Amino acid sequence: MNLIMFGPPGAGKGTQAKRLVEGRGFVQLSTGDMLRAARASGSELGQRVAAVMDSGSLVSDEIVIELIDDQITKNPGVAGFIYDGFPRTTAQAVALDGLLASRGQRIDLVIRLVVDDEELLARITKRFEDQGRSDDNPETFVKRLAAYNTQTAPLLPFYGDRGLLREVDGMASMDGVAAAIDAALAG
Ligand code: AMP
Question: 184: which of 17, 36, 56, 166 fits an S-S bond (Cβ 3.0–4.6 Å)?
Answer without folding.
Answer: 166
